[in-house]
Each structure stands twice: as structure tokens, then as C-alpha cells.
Amino acid sequence: MMAGDQYTVSGAGAIGKAAHSGSGDIVAGGKYVGGTPPEASALEKLLEEIQAMRQHLDESDRAEVDAAVEELGENPPEARFRRILATFSGIATLIGEAGVPVIAAVKALMG
């Protein structure tokens, strides 16, 4: 930082100022490097639907869903993010009607 420079850094994946000279991209981790992040509201909707679905799950499936939700908070790479969505969708499919809102939310995120 040079004298007089001011930076405000906030949000997921924020790293501050990145300076670059030469060729190539600056990459600072995160699941959406080079991609388009889903809208926060779509992810929030999925988490709401998962919470509603939990009451219909047995202990094993509930533990798997809870672990996947926790992993989402750890900013997984995009490929892992999609596998987590597949986990939610698969479990939601198995429980039938109660899982339909989760499947719709997953589809909205996968675009």
C-alpha cells in the first residue's frame, strides 16, 4: 500500500489489494475463481429448504446433510460445491414430496 491509499475489504473471499505485473491471472482461492458465483438469495433459499427437510430425515441422512451444510461455509472449490449440491438433491429425491423444494433450490443454483 502506498501513502494515501485506502482499501475496504469485506465479503467472502476478500483478500485486499492484489498487485500484478506480467502475464497470467491473479487467483486468490475460493469456489468461484473464474466462474460466476450464485446469487446469495439462491443459496439462502437452499439452506432454508434444507432446514425444513431435516425433520423428514433419519439420523444418518441428517448427519450427512449437516456435514455438507457445514462444508458449504468453508468455501469449497466449485467442483466440490456441485458434489455437495448433488448430495442434497439425492437425499431430497429419496424422501419424496418433502424433498421437492430442496431439489428446486438445487436446480436454481446449478442453473
Task: Set down the secondary structure blueprint.
Blueprint: H1 40-53, H2 59-72, H3 78-95, H4 100-110
Overview of this protein structure:
This protein has 111 residues and is mostly helical. The protein has four helices and no strands. It has helices at 40-53, 59-72, 78-95, 100-110. Helix 1 (40-53) runs antiparallel to helix 4 (100-110) and helix 2 packs antiparallel against helix 3. The longest helix has 18 residues, at 78-95. The protein starts with 39 loop residues before the first helix and ends with a helix. The model is unreliable at 29-34 (pLDDT under 50).
Task: List its salient traits.
about 0% strand; mainly alpha; 4 helices; globular; about 110 residues; about 50% helix
Short recap of the structure:
With 111 residues, this protein is mainly α.
Number of strands: 0
Runs in which pLDDT lies below 50 for 5 or more consecutive residues are: 29-34
Q: Strand percentage, roughly?
A: under 5%
Question: Radius of gyration in whole Å, from Cα?
Answer: 18 Å
Rounded mean pLDDT score: 79
Q: Order of helices and strands, N to C?
A: HHHH
* Structural shape: globular
Structural class: mainly alpha
Fraction of residues in helix: 40-55%
The major sheet is characterized as: none
> How many helix segments?
4
The termini sit apart by 39 Å
